[in-house]
Every structure is written in structure tokens, then in C-alpha cells.
Specification:
mainly beta, 7-stranded mixed β-sheet, 4-stranded antiparallel β-sheet, 11 strands, 3% helix
């Protein structure tokens, strides 16, 4: 399984960004998928997850109502639409393929940096 995240950048408070995670083969069909992030000096934390096939989603409280996770099975791509960005969203964001049993991360992509300035 290969995961390639992209779409990070430097934005202002209140701006939007869309992160993409290109996956290999049937990843989105075979695995639940998720986004995580790691801010400087902090541990990696959960952001959002989507069930394989895209029929259910779950978000961290800190991003609920602002971020939307989605997937496109045809292009094997997972997205994270991030709206109303805040400085505390600044972090390296990672996509991951998750186990279907307990939603724990199984495969990681490389990160993409999101920087939000006030």
C-alpha cells in the first residue's frame, strides 16, 4: 500500500485548503482511511476518518464542522477539505490506511505541512 499526501501550504486564519492522499490500487475499497496531524513539539493526533466505501465519517472535536473527509474510489484518492483554518491547525498532516477491525493505523503516507498564520 502506497499513500502520497499533498496540498499543504501556508495560509491565513480563516482560509481553506484541500489535502489529497493518492493511494495505490484498491486501498480505499479495502481499508478504512484517516487523516492525522502532528504539530511541533506535540504527539501525532487523530483528525478524521472515513469507512471504506465512504459511508461513515468521524472527526476530532477540534475540527468537527470545519473539516470534511471524502474519498473518490475511481481515482483512489482521499481528500481532507479544511475550512476556517486556525493557527492551531498548523501541523504536518498525514494520511493513513486503517485496519477495518479497530480503525488503528496500518500504513502511513508521508506528511504534508499546513501552516496557518494569524
Amino acid at each position: 500500500v502506497q499513500l502520497q499526501a499533498s496540498g499543504g501550504g501556508s495560509v491565513q486564519t480563516g482560509d481553506s485548503l484541500r489535502l489529497s492522499c493518492a493511494t495505490s490500487g484498491r486501498t480505499f475499497s479495502d481499508y478504512n482511511m484517516g487523516w492525522f496531524r502532528q504539530a511541533p513539539g506535540k504527539e501525532r493526533e487523530f483528525v478524521a476518518q472515513i469507512a471504506r466505501g465512504g459511508h461513515s465519517h468521524h472527526y476530532a472535536k477540534s475540527v468537527a464542522g470545519r473539516f470534511t473527509i471524502s474519498g473518490d474510489a475511481a481515482s483512489h484518492t482521499i481528500y481532507l477539505q479544511m475550512n476556517s483554518l486556525k493557527p492551531e491547525d498548523t501541523a504536518v498532516h498525514y494520511c493513513a490506511a486503517l485496519r477495518t477491525t479497530d480503525w488503528s493505523p496500518l500504513y502511513w503516507g508521508q506528511g504534508t505541512l499546513v501552516t496557518v498564520s494569524s
